[in-house]
Design brief:
Layout (H helix, E strand, L loop, with lengths): L1 E6 L7 H15 L4 E6 L15 E5 L12 H26 L3 E5 L4 H5 L6 E6 L16 H21 L2 E4 L2 H6 L6 E3 L19 E5 L8 H14 L4 E5 L5 H10 L6 E4 L5 H6 L3 E4 L8 H8 L4 E4 L5 H4 L6 E4 L4 H13 L1 H14 L5 H17 L1
Parallel strand pairs: 1-2, 1-4, 2-3, 4-5, 5-6, 6-7, 8-9, 8-11, 9-10, 11-12, 12-13
Helix pairs in contact: 6-11
């Protein structure tokens, strides 16, 4: 089977990029499919995650991000030109490859992908929950930009529902946002560190958090909660791993709260596995999620999680009071209390970690990837 994935670039260290890369590698190496990655603007930037030699990478050299360094009217002209160039080059590659499956993402040209005139079945993945698609990293928009993005999103979603052969969401909650439709499927993310036999002993006085430094991830809420935690447990440390728009804001918040001695903001690391193993609690403070990949990563290494019960994902991953703790979304005091509870109850913390490692096996590649294989075969047999 020939499968084509279309994405803008695998250039940043993020959950979507990691999952996409792992999925393509698995389909090529384990199932033996002929897999292609078509990017619009990878350029000379190295891939964020290692891509199998069995996956063929094609870059169309249409760098959409360059238009935003120009004045508004030139942006429009350049955007139209890039759109046209991208569409023509993409059609040429699709004709040459003649794939059975084309997979796109709601965040990049999904409406165009759905309308491609070819035999391939079109699968659109909703990695960012439908409700929160097109929200910028700083969450700030002008009135006209907000109206434009809402209109574009509505048009795009309408095209996806009309022309795609399958819409795949990561959670049941996001699936309901798309309405009742037989073409909507729920296939959660997987993580390839889930098979490790190594677990955190959950003894280090350390809480870990990871993700892009954006409004979505809510690290400002975590710092507010940690201000409460460190007063009760001054010997514990909070380590945040991530980069992004809010870095200076969060660094200032830590300094203003005089928490430099107990909070460190680190850049992304390629060895996040070891950082989980050196931690006793994982904290997820997001305002919303598409899924919550960091939760299953931490749980697979025996680290219990404390998370806001935000949309979308945590409540479907964490089994409250069994392998982690869910806190009402936005309840800073409750979040701090939950962290303190696990700090103060070591035996319970370790028991949660063991349960987490066992419960999260439902997200193993052996359980998740056959769902993709089944979907692809079902679509191509129609």
């Amino acid at each position: 089977m020939k499968i084509v994935y279309i994405y803008d670039s695998i250039a940043r260290i993020g959950g979507t990029e990691r999952i996409l890369t792992d999925k393509m590698n698995y389909l090529a190496e384990t199932y033996g499919h002929e897999v292609y990655l078509i990017t619009s603007s990878q350029g000379n930037h190295p891939l964020s995650f290692p891509l199998s030699d069995k996956v063929k990478h094609i870059d169309l050299d249409t760098k959409f991000h360059l238009q935003y360094q120009h004045p508004f009217l030139k942006q429009l002209r350049m955007g139209w030109s890039l759109d046209h160039k991208f569409e023509q080059r993409l059609k040429k590659e699709i004709t040459r490859i003649n794939p059975d499956i084309i997979s796109g993402n709601t965040s990049f040209k999904a409406d165009l992908i759905c309308r491609l005139d070819c035999k391939a079945k079109k699968v659109i993945e909703s990695h960012c929950a439908k409700t929160y698609t097109r929200i910028p990293e700083n969450r700030k928009k002008s009135f006209f930009k907000d109206v434009k993005d809402r209109y574009v999103s509505c048009q795009c979603f309408r095209e996806i529902k009309r022309y795609s052969d399958a819409i795949v969401t990561l959670t049941q909650e996001d699936a309901t946002m798309w309405g009742k439709d037989p073409n909507i499927h729920v296939i959660p993310n997987t993580t390839f560190i889930i098979d490790t036999h190594t677990s955190s002993p959950c003894e280090a006085p350390r809480v870990i958090a990871a993700g892009r430094l954006t409004w979505q991830k809510g690290f400002d809420r975590l710092i507010d909660a940690w201000d409460i935690v460190q007063k009760r447990h001054p010997g514990w440390m909070l380590d945040i791993f991530g980069e992004g728009f809010y870095k200076d804001f969060l660094t200032k918040q830590v300094k203003d709260r005089k928490l430099e001695h107990s909070i460190t903001i680190h850049p992304f690391t390629q060895n996040i596995t070891q950082e989980y193993l050196n931690s006793s609690i994982m904290a997820l403070s997001s305002n919303y999620e598409g899924f919550g990949l960091v939760l299953i990563e931490a749980m697979s290494l025996g680290v219990p999680c404390v998370s806001f019960d935000c949309p979308f994902g945590p409540s479907e991953i964490i089994r409250d009071q069994e392998d982690g703790l869910l806190v009402k979304n936005g309840d800073i005091q409750g979040f701090a209390n939950a962290i303190c509870h696990l700090i103060e109850h070591e035996a319970e913390r370790k028991a949660f970690g063991k349960s987490a490692k066992e419960n999260v096996k439902r997200y193993s590649p052996q359980n998740i990837m056959p769902q993709w294989e089944m979907l692809f075969h079902k679509l191509t047999e129609k």
